[in-house]
Amino acid sequence: MTASLLTLSRLRPQSLRLGVNIDHVATIRNARGGEHPDPVRAAQIVASVGGDGITAHLREDRRHIRDEDLARIQAATDLPLNLEMAATDEMVEIALRHKPHAACIVPERREERTTEGGLDAAGQHNRLAPIVTRLADAGIRVSLFIAPDPRQIEAALRLRVPVVELHTGEYAHASGEMQAAQLRRIADMAALAVKNGIEAHAGHGLTYDNVAAVAAIPQLAELNIGHYLVGEAIFVGLEDAVRRMRELMDAAR
Ligand code: PXP
User: What is the reported pTM?
Assistant: First the structure.
């Protein structure tokens, strides 16, 4: 290891990556049908303040990110793009065309307001297996957005994905004892994933108030956070919102 790398690893011994989901910048843009605010500018700001990646979900109904945004986001920064996508032929073709750094397969229902639950990887092995293979063969790092449940980790192992993202929505929406129990599930499943050679990420519903306990789970390598940061950006600007989240995550390690 070179001297500068050594210094860096001492400074940030167990660094946790922050992927910023910029979908809701596009939601606001689309509310008026124009070009402002541009998610590309959001991606550039995230890059300028030390975000580690950009996450974007191209939904079947294109309610926020649109097809043409993907190439523009990829061209605008050097940050890795994590494309959230449903397990459909259309999305696989799009992913293969754009070759994002990573593709996170999520469940998607038209009538939901957001991705409300994890992917049933256990119940959909046969449907997911060829999709995972096609993406992986194209050099895309495949992740599954799953509930923190041992059955889903086992399914991820059978599908040989390198990454799982644990859904933190139930933790985020719970309080007291229930929240503590959800946190234990996330910690246990992150440990189980890592023990089996799968990188563990987490996300959904994370805020300044609830991020620290999740960020403190040592096996987690990345958090993906969107709605709260875009909401905070209205009041303090995206730069400050991302910086503050980064500080809270670093302080928890
Ligand atoms: N990770 C995944 C896989 C998601 O689907 C979402 C929501 O789109 C997030 C993270 C971010 O969730 P939130 O917007 O609640 O921070």
Answer: 0.93
